[in-house]
Amino acid sequence: MTNKEIKASKTFHIEIIETLSQIVEIVAEDEQAALLKAQELYRSEEVVLDSEDYIDTKYNIFT
Predict the structure, then answer these.
(1) What are the residue boundaries of the DpnD/PcfM-like C-terminal domain, all occurrences included (predicted)?
(2) Quick check: is 8 in a domain?
C-alpha cells in the first residue's frame, strides 16, 4: 500500500445480518400458547437452527 492509499483509507462499520428460518409444528390450544411453546423449545435448544436453515444474508453500512 502506498502513502497515498493509506491517507485515502477510511474506516467503515458494516452490519452483517444472516437470516435462518425453520417451520416447527406445535400443538397448542391457541396461537399465543403455540408461540410460547415454540419460544421455550428454542430457548431450551430443542429446536436449533443451523446452516441447513439458511435463507439470506444482508449487509448494511453505517456512516
Answers:
(1) 13-56
(2) no
